[in-house]
Design a protein that fits this description.
15% strand; globular; NAD(P)-bd_dom_sf; 3-oxoacyl-[acyl-carrier-protein] reductase (NADPH) activity; EC 1.1.1.100; 44% helix; seven-stranded parallel beta sheet; oxidoreductase; 3-oxoacyl-ACP reductase FabG
């Protein structure tokens, strides 16, 4: 079950963190991996480790997204799986946030999702097969955190986009779903500092932070043939973080 043999997968933002974890799990399941991202050195290293291909890809540029899909079609003749994972989460309190900061987050997280999904869909429709998995977040759709109102809005926006997009391709053999990570121990999360990490561990019923592979396993399921009857849905992967009514409900 969940074999991705003979499937080709593009993971945007696959050079680091959650994207790297997703790419690694898809590779273990048998998929040929294409890493799309802006960090050429890191992206090439990950692609080499997985025996895959790296493509320089800025998801905020529509032409980049179209060119990447065309190159994958040229190299492999097919694109079966898109994991739209590229995203940023710079912190900025609302009273000091600039228009440029708001636009940057939405350009990468939300418009970038639109651009790469649109480009991939055009190819997938011709083959009448596709699995699209978005990396959203619990922050925005379910929870909030000071300094991330722009990030939360973009992640909630991804889910609204997903539901309507899923309807548009439902009869084309294409599914679109999302994973919603909680706190995953990536380079970006570590940059928030040990005090923040300890606060997060205390707020999670398992008292552990997730790993990129935890998100990768959920994405792998949604990218599989077995998930053919699931579309327009989201899976929260957070160690139960959103469950407690209050801190008192978290086991000691």
């Amino acid at each position: 079950m969940f074999s991705l043999e003979n499937r080709v997968a593009l993971v945007t933002g696959g050079e680091h963190g959650i994207g790297k974890g997703i790419a690694g799990v898809l590779h273990k399941a048998g998929a040929k991996i294409v890493i799309g991202g802006i960090d050429e050195a890191a992206g090439q290293q990950v692609a080499n480790e997985l025996g895959g291909l790296f493509l320089k890809l800025d998801v905020t540029r529509q032409s980049d997204c179209q060119s990447a899909i065309a190159e994958i079609e040229k190299q492999f003749g097919q694109l079966d799986i898109l994991c739209s994972n590229a995203g940023i989460f710079p912190q900025a309190n609302l009273d000091e946030m600039t228009e440029a900061q708001w636009d940057q987050v939405h350009n990468v997280n939300l418009k970038g999702t639109f651009f790469i999904v649109q480009a991939a869909m055009a190819h997938m429709k011709k083959r009448r097969y596709g699995r699209i998995v978005l990396t959203s977040s619990i922050t925005g759709p379910v929870t909030g955190f000071p300094g991330w109102s722009h990030y939360g809005a973009s992640k909630a926006g991804q889910l609204g986009f997903m539901r309507s997009a899923a309807l548009e391709v439902a009869n084309s053999g294409i599914t679109i779903n999302a994973v919603m990570p909680g706190n995953v121990l990536t380079e970006g999360l570590q940059a928030q500092g040990e005090e923040y990490l300890n606060q997060m561990r205390a707020a999670i019923p398992t008292h552990t932070l997730g790993t990129p592979d935890d998100i990768g396993h959920a994405a792998c399921f949604l990218a599989s043939e077995e998930a053919r009857y699931i579309t327009g849905q989201q899976i929260i992967v957070d160690g139960g973080q959103v469950l407690p009514e209050s801190p008192d409900a978290i086991p000691g």
